[in-house]
Design goal:
336 residues, mainly alpha, elongated, disordered C terminus
């Protein structure tokens, strides 16, 4: 018995070293495993589990961590369960890993962090996010609210956005910015916030969120332009937009010679019977369209009389007036 105990202790010590001094062959591991299994040794099982974990043999690690937990009083300690959760993650058993971490989240700070990491990792990867069940998501929501976690709130915002649950996405992005001053400055968080607001029809709020970031990322500038285009054209007639906000929009689209922005302004001014301004913006929209192969043989005289072009645009199908972005070239606008 003493020799057996000495053997187990030596192997435990060696397996727990990052660089074992003994040559740990597979034969030695299997021989030690037989002894550990016969003795129901939780320390031996844990030593084998950590050794396999360090060598990325996660399936073997899961088996031994599970035995270590089963053979330990009260299900083992936080460290055994931490290894178990991470090994389960390594074998793509995310739900089981979550359950282990969740059970320990209030008993060990490291396990709470692991739980957050497991859920956020899944939410950020479509191949895993699609498999998350609603009870697991709602369980995470409760912990996020309890901790006021901006990381968790942002992950939930994008997750709900991806589910087309845009209303839920709005609430979580809002929480993320309220709980963290840094999130208020983060373009990615505000991109999700503005995009979610846009998709639930809260366009004025979406514009206000996107505008401060137009010079931070091109994506936010593009989102801002699309939001305002929608504001200017989604109703017929459109709701009045304060002139200072129109001026901000013009300052963004004019340097880029953005034809969609100009076209939206044309329709907006036309619906308000501001025809001189409407003609100007329709003219700019036509001038700013990228060259189209189909226009090479078009009658260039058509471009000389902008008022006649305007007249044709007014007669366009109602769907165009509601969705100018569907018409992506001058040729389409003019009926060529």
């Amino acid at each position: 018995a003493d020799i057996r105990r000495l053997y187990v202790n030596i192997m435990n010590d060696e397996l727990n070293k990052t660089n074992p001094s003994l040559d740990i062959t597979q034969n030695r591991l299997e021989r030690f495993g037989v002894v550990v299994a016969a003795d129901h040794s939780p320390t031996g099982a844990q030593a084998l589990a950590w050794y396999y974990q360090r060598n990325n043999a996660f399936s073997n690690a899961v088996d031994w961590f599970k035995l270590a937990v089963n053979w330990s009083p009260d299900g083992g300690d936080a460290k055994i369960n931490e290894g178990y959760a991470l090994a389960l993650k390594g074998t793509d058993h995310w739900a089981e890993a979550e359950d282990v971490a969740f059970a320990w989240k209030d008993r060990a700070p490291d396990m709470r962090a692991i739980y957050f990491g497991l859920v956020i990792d899944q939410m950020n990867k479509p191949q895993y996010a699609d498999k998350m069940t609603e009870p697991r998501v709602q369980r995470f929501e409760g912990v996020v609210l309890q901790d006021r976690s901006d990381d968790g709130a942002q992950a939930l915002g994008w997750f709900r956005y991806g589910q087309k649950g845009h209303g839920y996405g709005v609430n979580w992005f809002k929480q993320a910015t309220e709980w963290s001053p840094e999130r208020r400055k983060d373009p990615k968080t505000n991109e999700g916030y503005a995009a979610s607001l846009r998709l639930v029809g809260r366009l004025t709020e979406a514009e206000a969120i996107a505008y401060p970031f137009i010079n931070v990322t091109e994506l936010m500038k593009k989102l801002y332009v699309e939001i305002v285009v929608e504001e200017l054209t989604h109703d017929n007639p459109p709701e009045p937009v304060p002139e200072p906000r129109i001026a901000n929009f013009v300052a963004v689209i004019a340097p880029d010679m953005n034809p969609l922005g100009a076209q939206a302004l044309g329709w907006y001014r036309l619906e308000r019977h501001e025809n001189t301004e409407a003609v100007k913006w329709f003219r700019d929209a036509l001038d700013w369209w990228p060259p189209q192969e189909a226009l090479k043989h078009a009658d260039q005289k058509t471009f000389e009389d902008y008022k006649s072009i305007l007249a044709r645009l007014v007669m366009m199908h109602e769907a165009y007036r509601k969705s100018p972005r569907a018409y992506t070239s001058t040729a389409t606008l003019l009926g060529h």
